[in-house]
Amino acid sequence: DVYWHLSAISVSHRLLSHVNGICLLSACTFFASQLLYRRGPAPRCSLSDLQRRADKTLAMPSSSDAYDAFSSPAAHTAVDMEFSSMQSAQSSVPRSTSSDKTLYDHDLVMVFPRREGGELKKPDDFTLDSFVHLMMGKDPDRSHRSNKIVVDPFQRVLRTPRCYLDERGCDVVMDSSNDHSEESEQRRLETQEQLLKKEYEQFIGNTEATTETRFCELVATAIARRVQLACGLTTRMFLSCDADEIIMTIKADNDDLRIEADRTNYRLQVSNKPFDKTLHVKKLKTLQREMGDKEWQNSIDHLRHTRGCANEDAEYPEMDPLLVSRGEEFHPELRKAVDIWGHTEEADGLFVEDDTCRRVQGNHWDRFVTSIFALPYDPLTYFAPFAEYRHEEKYQPFYRRYPIKWGQKKEETLFSQKDRIRLAEGIVERHINADALEAAGYLEGQMFALHDAKALHDLRHSWALHWTMLYQPLHKIRYYFGEKIALYFAWLEFYTKMLVFPAVAGIITFVYIEARQAVTGTNQQGYILIAFAVFVVLWSSLFSELWKRKNGLLDSLWGLSGLQESFRYRPQFRGTKSYHPVTDAEEVTFESKMKRRRAFIVSILVVTFMVGIVIVALFGLFVLKHWINDSDNLEKNNINTKYQTPLTFGVTVVNAIQILVLNTVYRTVARKLNDLENHRTDAEYENYLVIKVFLFQFCNSFASFFYIAFVKRIAEGSCLYEDDCMQELRDQLLTLFIIRIVVGNTTEVVVPYLKYRYQLFAERKAAYTEEKTGHNYIEEQAKLVPYESNEAFEDYNEMVIQYGFINLFVVAFPLTPLLALANNVLEVHVDAVKLCFVHRRPFPHPAKDIGVWFYILRFMTYIALGTNSALILWTSDLFEDQTGTVRAFSFVVACQVCLVLAVLVERVVPDTPHEIRLLQERYEHIVNVVFKGLFEGDNSKLNEVAERLDLQIYPNHEWEESKQHYA
Prior knowledge:
Elements: H1 2-36, H2 47-58, H3 66-71, H4 80-86, E1 108-113, H5 118-121, H6 128-136, H7 140-146, H8 182-204, H9 212-229, E2 234-239, E3 245-251, H10 254-264, E4 267-269, H11 281-291, H12 293-306, H13 321-324, H14 327-330, H15 332-341, H16 364-373, E5 386-388, E6 402-406, E7 409-413, H17 417-431, H18 434-439, H19 453-464, H20 474-481, H21 483-498, H22 500-520, H23 528-558, E8 575-579, E9 586-590, H24 593-628, H25 631-636, H26 644-677, H27 682-716, H28 720-723, H29 725-766, H30 777-782, H31 789-808, H32 816-838, H33 852-875, H34 884-908, H35 914-930, H36 959-966
Antiparallel strand pairs: 1-3, 2-3, 4-5, 6-7, 8-9
Helix pairs in contact: 1-22, 1-29, 1-32, 6-8, 8-9, 10-17, 11-12, 19-32, 20-21, 21-23, 21-32, 22-23, 22-32, 23-33, 23-34, 24-26, 24-27, 26-27, 26-29, 27-29, 27-31, 27-33, 29-32, 31-32, 31-33, 33-34
Domain Anoctamin transmembrane: 477-922
Membrane topology: Multi-pass membrane protein
Transmembrane segments: 15-37, 485-513, 525-543, 599-623, 643-666, 687-710, 850-874, 886-905
């Protein structure tokens, strides 16, 4: 009794001292973020105002109506009056009218600068030649030297011949022959150059140099003309509040999207039961009315011929009858797995019932376990094949439709919001090189899509500001932000929930150690550290394997299996034109391999130099800490020894600040080095950037821990706290971890938000009067901070470094997983708040995994085997009586045992569930049969020709005569 009484008192005191600060910090940060977004006086047409108008106009459903919220169009009708009042006289492109039935007003937005005064400093930048060079990508130096027109394909804004228009606004018919001679190419380039010169003269009024303002207007108008005439899309332009920007909205109708989907083989999800009378009565009638009886019957006949019906009496065929309708009879295991994963037919109805999204299956623990090994129940979970879009009429009923509300009307559309954005962007990018336009300074950021007021309202209240870690609306996030961002939050949710297990184990370990020390009066950690270290090794290996399974499940659910990354050259890439040795396709290769090798060597030297700066800074800080901990030094300098502990803590804080500052500086250096290496694609650029930044930040973030754990006792002779290096390592880990949490979460949200508010304030101040010129809904979103690729990079990087904290030195402070768990609960909402409040709507990039980050996580898992083994053997006091030889031998054995356990976990847990592989193969077969015509039972194929029937058995002596009979 006395033992446990003393233990409880000591443990309670120590545990509360470590944990209370984190709990208070998390609570304060959350409430601060809540207060932060209670805005003051908003502009005349703020986002909140528009949402209130949209609620009244569109009768916004509750947040439970999830499916409706994701396919509904933005409530843009509420700002049409704003457009009318803000339309500028400089906008020479009127809003085109279309007879097509269009459900969305705006798919994309482009923001062009409208600067002034630049002609005074650089008059040669705003001339006719400058306009031609920008649009064609003409290289003036090389053209002058070779006495012919030389263009850079990565710098030309206008990509295709359709972009070159005559004075009537019609595209010029170029030489359609397959003549690839240099003379023919020069004739085409000369024609394009003359057309651009005429366009400049018509807009400016002469061929002389113009002002920067007129030049910016010329560029914006030229792009708008190509978007309308070459891309076939609708545009309209208006000036910003203080007239320093030209904002252009782009709209695509359904026919545009269908053509682009067919041209690019865009993959759309198939409807499992498009002809079922019980779940799809309204869909059946709607599709039949749109197609007509003849085409409708052709579709039914085709599906019946290729897939069949659930039974002989069924009136309508099904896409997958033996799994959907009769799965319990024909494929019981596969059907059971699909049901466990959360498949529901409810999402494929015309409209989801109001109470569908409110139903939750099982208690919190069941949903917690299900979310790790499978998927929790969600009415948007829908397993069906993904097939390339085909425009033929008979295939149209086979694709899944998405319900939307437009005013008081309920309809269905073939393309979800993310599909519309991708296809519209693809149409524009095929003709307009937006990257080159941005690199030249005539486009502010990339094209972006406007936020959907209803869907954003639902995401804010059901996700960003909903304080829970048990459920992430992954399907909502995917429909709105795309698979790449959805995968990040899926991984973050999975990582956070998996942290529960080491957090519980860490609490038990910490309590046991503190109780033991309270009773014995010593600092011995106990052999429980060994068990905890082995547990963390197994956990980290299991974490990687289970995430691969979860990733495979999401790939199958979202149709990402076999996804090929789009290959697009970076506009900054420099190379020479060549032809592919196999396909003869035109491509661009590196100018010089030797030059690229030199760039890589420079990168290695710079990274090494930066790591050297880290080592020097760390050495100086530890020398300072050693000097402070020497009481004689303090007395000689008239410093009271009672300040020794605060000064030591101050050095640790300075170390944390040094880590954050150098990380920030190095990110800029790494991007410069990446630019120097001249990478061809964005994916290649990002992968090399990830490797550079991780290598440096790994050294910068963990160098002090390696020094304290393995070097300090040898270099300085002792550690702090009566030569207890584990205690010093624990304090260093706790201090740096908390500072990283506070600074990271603050800068992620507060800084971008303050930039956004300052931009709005500056615009209103520069305008003549706020009553006359206020921000409309589109301009407000244009002022939001762009969510670029580096944002996702920073989010992953932050979590990966945290993963290192809880793996590499976890035995020094077993409560580290608990702190990481508390931080991640906050991190989910911080990242969600960034997306829903601070940033523009990101482009919905597709992605099938988390990329190179997964391999970095695996790398740190293996490094942790060695660090934790070394901590137990050399830094802790468990083996202080053993010789160095015994410790070294034990270290090798421990690492090998842990490595065997990690590999065993990898072998026991399959990467992809057996049912998922079967489902993927089944879906591939369905697509081949229904959409590609690879049907084995097709009677249209050629058969063997029948021979004349002869069943007579001839006697042996008549064998020769029978051969003549056959002849």
